[in-house]
Amino acid sequence: MKEILKFKKINELKKVYRSNSVGTRKESSAEHTWSSLMLADYFFPKISQKVDKLKVYELLMYHDLVEIESGDFALSPDIEELNKKEIELKGAKVLSKKLTKYQSNKFLNLFMEFEDNLTIEAKFATAIDKFDAIIQELDYKEDWKGWKKEFLQNKKEIFFKDFPIINREFHKILNYLEKENYFH
Question: Which domain holds residue 104?
Answer without folding.
Answer: 2-179
